[in-house]
Amino acid sequence: MLMSKIGFIGCMEISWHCLKKIAELAKKHGDELEIVFNLEEEKGLKYSSYIDFSSLQKDFNFNLIHVSKVSEPENLEILKNSKLDILFIIGWHQIVPQIVLDSSKIKLGIHSSLLPKDRGSSPINWQIIRGESQGGVTLFHLTAGVDAGNIVDQESYAITETDNVATVYEKATLSSLNLLEKNWNNIHLSNLKSVIQDENEITVNKQRRPDDGLIDWSKSSKDCYNWIRAQTSPYPGAFTFYKNKKIYLWKSKITNHNFTNPGQIIEIGERIIVSTGDGSIELLSLQVEDEPICSPNLFSKSYNLEKNSFFNNI
């Protein structure tokens, strides 16, 4: 009976779900999940969606190794000795060098966009920031280039105006599991499609940092709304400042109030309404840094919010 030896590298929530599905499919098809690398907790907790794989290790009894870098010599030796047929790298925190890819016959990744669009960092965040109505995931062959390998399969989904980064992340995870199930027989047989990406369609996203979450109130109400929902929990969050305090904005909606000056607070109390570049938005969930999350009413009362004062960028 044909058996594929499989390795996995990952550390995010989507990684956990994909690893669980891979372990189940491998067991069903007689494949062997040989080795799994997870990021060590001390480093992992610096990332929004980090998750440990220990619970899966108990269920599926694979060899689990926690590392800071998979390319360290002792890890390369483990990979070499594992003689892998398939290596999955899904939701890892850093670019993996060619020497790691060379440890397996076939190298597969999943990216949360319809490649060649949205190569690079934070595709879901950028899709929502841009107000796009379609997202998707791509199963593809890994190469040294960032998200540049040939495509195995793709699945698309709708991004609605009420979605946020958490709900779209779930859609991406579900589609990733669908792709693994749909393509597992060919993965098992090491007989996968390999479609070259169209170079004329390539777009590349820049890497996002937590400090990039500062909201620009001079943008349109739609842009401000998209900015907030694109960066809400579990991500670091969009933010502004009020009386030198950093304020995280977790949820909002567009309103039809007449606008004044961008960033001006035109209503307080049960509703906090802020003027934008072309209208206004209502803030539904706010938080002063390192303090409790508040409703508008509680925030207004606890922080003595003043009508006609301003949220600003300093």
What does this structure look like?
By secondary structure, the chain is an alpha/beta fold. The chain has two domains: 5-204, 3-Layer(aba) Sandwich (Rossmann fold), CATH 3.40.50.170; 210-302, Roll (Methionyl-tRNA Fmet Formyltransferase, Chain A, domain 2), CATH 3.10.25. The chain has nine helices and 15 strands. It has a seven-stranded mixed beta sheet with strand order 3-2-1-4-5-7-8, sandwiched between helices. Strands 10, 11, 12, 13, 14 and 15 form a six-stranded antiparallel beta sheet that branches. It has a two-stranded parallel ribbon with strand order 6-9. Strand 1, helix 1 (13-29) and strand 2 form a beta-alpha-beta unit. Helix 1 (13-29) packs parallel to helix 7 (165-188). The radius of gyration is 22 Å and the shape is elongated. The chain starts with a strand and ends in a 12-residue tail after the last helix. The model has no long low-confidence stretch (mean pLDDT 95).
